[in-house]
Structures are given as C-alpha cells and as structure tokens.
Specification:
With 276 residues, the chain is an alpha/beta fold. The protein has a domain at 3-134: Ribosomal Protein S5, domain 2. 24% of the residues lie in helices and 32% in strands. The chain contains seven helices and 19 strands. Strands 12, 13, 14, 15, 16 and 19 form a six-stranded mixed beta sheet that branches. The longest helix has 18 residues, at 223-240.
C-alpha cells in the first residue's frame, strides 16, 4: 500500500465525515508557476469558525467571493493580498473533512510533487475525526458555461463530482468521485501540461517551478496519461469547490473543466446555496 493510500485509509473521510486539525502544520516548497519559495501554514480553527484564510493580520472566511486566478491556477485574493495556486491544499482540506481550519500564507503555495496526496500526507498526522454534521442539499439545478467548458449541478444527498476532459484531439476521458468513496486514484494524479502548450506557457512566464518531479507532459496517444490527466482535473475541481460550505451536498458534471469554469461554478452555486 502506498503512503498516500495509507493516509487515506487512516483518515476520517466518510459520506458526511467531519474532522479537525489538532496541531500547527507548516509546509514549505516552491510555486509551480513563479518558482518562488513559499510557505503555507495550517492551524486548528475555533469550533464553528469554518475555513479561514489569514495573512498580515487579516482573517476572512474562505468562500466563493475570494476566488480569483490567472490561467492554470486558482487564488484567494483580498485587495493586493493573494495566496496563489491553492487548489491542491484546499482539495486536501476538503477530502480530509476539515471544517474549522485556518490557512495562513501569501504568494504561491508550494507545488510539492504536483499531487493533492502530498498535502494529505503532511496533514494527516494531525487530523482526528469529529462529530458528523448534517448536510443540506442544493435547492435546484444549475448550468454554467465558461472558458470553452460547461457544467451542470443538481441536488444530491452527498457531494458527487465528475469531469470529462476533451482537448479536441479525438479522445476524451472521464473521472468521477463521491464523498465517502476511495479518493486514492485522484489523490495520486500529478499536475500535467500538454506538449503542444509547453512553449506558450514558458513564453507567458508560467511553469517556472515545473519539473518532471512535479509535472508530467501529457502524450495524447497514451491512455495512462489521459486517465491521469482526467483524474488531476477532478482533483482540481475538488479543490476549487472547497470554497463552498463543506456540508452542502450536490452533484456536478463538468465537461472540459478549467479553473476559470470551476470558479464560475462555485460562484453560481454560492448564489443559490441555502447555507451562508
């Protein structure tokens, strides 16, 4: 069993699972886009405080009003303060069921090995189960389109997510997961870049911290690479939707997902959410 699988197996993840952090965790590394050193610190939050972002004395709830981002990543932003590329750490917070937690930092979050599982491994030793909380379902169906993709969200008894990637190259792949199911496959999916995009990304100043240690180059003829790319897009969706109340249940089907589409989806869900 891999270390990621062990961390997941020992975690309190469940259909309506809840967990709490018991110690301060500091994670150091470098950003995948800027290449700059970065640190993110997670500390236990007060009971009922929810998920908070703290920086330079500011402390605000993590919700859909904060999400921003350049192509290829999502950020939390208030004025000139930003914490970039937060989707992986937010996905780890979500899958571990952490309800009351403080995320501290600014700049770009560390990419680590390019997976959400790397964040789970670092947080898991300080995570313990908490009392389950009741869920509230989304009241109606929503449809959102952005950045060449589309999403449909509907009421459900738990949070269920599915993505289909299609780059217009004659193939498509699906990945899906629901709360309470084994997340190991998407936790281990690495950040990727398509070979045809490498030069354009470099010219735009993106991927300065990318290497084969944290990013794989997608070969469109490789079925294994296609599967891993879909699973990583699913991981990004989990993280981008972690700005929603954790006890809000819905199912989302996303075609050609991107961070821009995911963020628009989060804002749309927040606009009709019965949970403030």
């Amino acid at each position: 069993m891999t270390t990621i699988a062990k961390a997941v197996a020992a975690s309190p993840i469940g259909v309506h699972g809840a967990a709490r952090l018991t110690a301060r965790i500091e994670v150091d590394g470098h950003g995948v886009h800027t290449g700059a050193p970065g640190r993110v610190t997670l500390t236990p939050g007060d009971p009922g405080s929810g998920r908070l972002w703290r920086s330079r004395g500011m402390s605000v709830p993590i919700d859909a009003t904060l999400v921003d981002g350049a192509p290829g990543q999502s950020s939390l932003r208030v004025g000139d303060l930003a914490l970039q590329t937060v989707e992986h750490v937010l996905a780890a917070i979500s899958v571990l069921g952490l309800r009351d937690v403080v995320l501290e930092g600014e700049g770009e979050a560390p990419i680590l090995d390019g997976t959400v599982g790397a964040w789970v491994e670092r947080l898991r030793p300080a995570v313990v189960g908490d009392d389950p909380r009741p869920t509230t379902t989304l009241p109606r169906v929503l449809r959102v389109e952005a950045a060449g993709g589309r999403a449909t969200v509907a009421p459900a008894k738990r949070r269920e997510l599915a993505v289909r990637i299609d780059f217009g190259e004659g193939w498509s792949t699906v990945a899906a997961w629901g709360e309470g199911d084994d997340p190991t496959l998407w936790l281990s999916a690495r950040t990727f870049v398509r070979q045809v995009d490498v030069q354009a990304f470099q010219a735009a100043g993106r991927g300065r911290g990318a290497s084969l240690e944290n990013t794989f180059v997608l070969d469109p003829t490789d079925p294994c690479g296609q599967s891993e790319a879909a699973r990583h897009k699913l991981a990004d969706l989990v993280g981008d939707l972690a700005v929603m109340p954790p006890d809000l249940a819905f199912q989302a089907w996303v075609v050609r997902p991107s961070h821009a589409l995911n963020r628009n989806l989060a804002r749309a869900i927040a606009s009709i959410s019965p949970i403030g």
